[in-house]
Amino acid sequence: MVQTSAEHSVAGIILACVLLVVMPLLSGAKRNVGRALGSPAIHADAKQTEFCTYLSAILLVGLLLNALFGFWWADPAAALIMVPIIGKEGIEGFQGKACGDCS
Fold first, then answer.
1. How far apart are CA 19 and CA 88, in angstroms?
2. Does any domain span residue 2?
3. Residue 65 within any structural domain of the chain
4. What is the DSSP string of 30-70?
5. Mutual orientation of helices 40-69 and 10-37 as an angle, nearest 10°?
6. Which of 46, 53, 92, 103 would staple 31 via disulfide (CB 3.0–4.6 Å)?
7. Largest CA distance in the chain
8. To 5 degrees, how large is the angle CA 66–CA 69–CA 72?
9. Inside any domain, residue 5
10. Residue 3 — very low, low, confident or very high, per pLDDT cuts 50/70/90?
């Protein structure tokens, strides 16, 4: 069995960079709409979009470490860093807990 390391992904790097620009703008727009409508649901959605920005940053670091320095383990490590963060959000969602600062 031949083992190969993860190859770098130019498309993934570009997508992560685009997300780091677009997600904060989208989150801000959702926050404005939520405030204008007085909608806690839209405000909570804005917080989740902001959360996606952080995940995109973690993804980008992993991809860049792999592409620039050949750290094949960085991309899987980034995914492992995301697991408890996403898990916590999922558990809180199932428990019906509102986001931390949605008022």
1. 22
2. no
3. yes
4. HHHHHHHHT-HHHHHHHHHHHHHHHHHHHHHHHHHHHHHH-
5. 160
6. 46
7. 59
8. 35
9. no
10. low
Token pair belonging to 5: 């390391």
Q: What Cα–Cα distance (Å) separates residue 7 from each residue in 4, 47, 67, 70, 75?
A: 9, 33, 8, 9, 10
Which residue type occupies 27? S
Do 46 and 30 touch, CB atoms closer than 8 A? Answer: yes
- The whole-angstrom separation of Cα 13 and Cα 59 is 8
- pTM, full prediction: 0.81
Cα 66 to Cα 91: distance, rounded to the nearest angstrom: 31
CA dist 48 and 46 (Å) reads 5
Provide the domain limits for residue 66: 10-94
- Domains: count for the chain: 1
- Structural tokens at position 71: 């750290």
Q: pLDDT tens digits, residue range 5-49?
A: 667 889 999 999 999 999 999 999 999 999 999 999 998 899 899
